[in-house]
Amino acid sequence: MRVLKYAILGLLNRKPMTGYDLSKEFSYQIGNFWSANHSQIYPELKRLLDEKLVVYNIEISGDVLEKKVYTITEKGRKEFLKWLNKDEPMEPTPKNVFRLRMYFSNNLDIETRIRLLEHQLVQHEEKLAFLLSEMQRYSGVPPFDSDDFGDYLVLDGAIMREKTTIEWLKKCIKICQSKTNCDEERN
Amino acid sequence: MRVLKYAILGLLNRKPMTGYDLSKEFSYQIGNFWSANHSQIYPELKRLLDEKLVVYNIEISGDVLEKKVYTITEKGRKEFLKWLNKDEPMEPTPKNVFRLRMYFSNNLDIETRIRLLEHQLVQHEEKLAFLLSEMQRYSGVPPFDSDDFGDYLVLDGAIMREKTTIEWLKKCIKICQSKTNCDEERN
DNA sequence: CCCGGCATGTAAACAGTTACATGATTGC
DNA sequence: GCAATCATGTAACTGTTTACATGCCGGG
């Protein structure tokens, strides 16, 4: 499917960048649904170069250090737009190790279940707080043809996703606690 | 991380199964957060056998066909429980091609955006309907130590996830339609 | 007898992570 | 001078998918 290819082309379509810049991009907004590290990016850029979908020119920073600033070509833009317009079927549900653990949680002490759930909860609450702070830079829906439009939609989606995860975790904790209380009453 | 290893051990801890049975399991409840196909399962079973975490005995169905029914060993159960009790940090956000497309959606016609969103919407609505029908077999929270307990929690989580995805898709469609209406008013 | 599902495997290709490897620049 | 970050790459390994390959069983 070569998704990384299109993620890179999409980013370069916004503005020219180095491999290093691309790898940083994946830790910002786009990191909420796609990422890659530099060891995957550099070989992919080489391949895109072979396919003539990008070109680069070298910039010197400081005295010697050469930066390869990649730019998308017309051919690259065409391929990217063709991919972007494709209507593809829903993807299979994403893998999630924590949910796998919970699937088997009948094998855990109630206390352990609660501890594991609460640890996830604090982490997701931190993540949500971060996403909400990111959202503050938008006062409303950005212009429909600006790069911010996509950023805004997916950021909103990420916030909704985190809120739901938090809600689920709290529900699970409540269920587990009801069992603990129930046991205490019996004693 | 060998997650598949623990997914298999967890399933075999419920009851003895063949490789074929395991691969079918991944299309049921557990498929909502983990899956693997048979070409990954058979080699993994061989490895678990080498590690003495499982054993098998051969059952004959019909006249000749040999089925290898795998059973978890005491060593296997110990390793599984050790893994299950581990408290691990939150995983990175899962990859999602559709959200990647939407991230770059400023490069699409408004009509195309709506079409793509609506296609996702119908698929997620179907998925939700299916999950809700699955949920009907539960009248309340199953016993805390039964296999159904985990099934119930993660099924509930999957339902919440689908509902949120649907809500997000509808929101995106509404935003895109507001633009279309706006343009029409101008004409 | 034929087809769909049962049943088990291997091989090749692709995707992704972790580790190895090197060196420059900038700010303190 | 030193540490953090900028900058680019390769190698080895792990995980996953797709395709190849084979054969039995049960019902219509």
UniProtKB/TrEMBL annotation, chains A, B:
Transcription regulator PadR N-terminal domain boundaries: 8-80
Coiled coil, from the record: 107-134
Pfam families for this protein: PadR (PF03551), Vir_act_alpha_C (PF10400)
GO molecular function per UniProt: DNA binding
Segments forming domain Transcription regulator PadR C-terminal: 95-175
The entry's keywords: Coiled coil, DNA-binding
PANTHER family cross-referenced by the UniProt entry: NEGATIVE TRANSCRIPTION REGULATOR PADR, TRANSCRIPTIONAL REGULATOR YQJI
Protein name according to UniProt: DNA-binding transcriptional regulator, PadR family
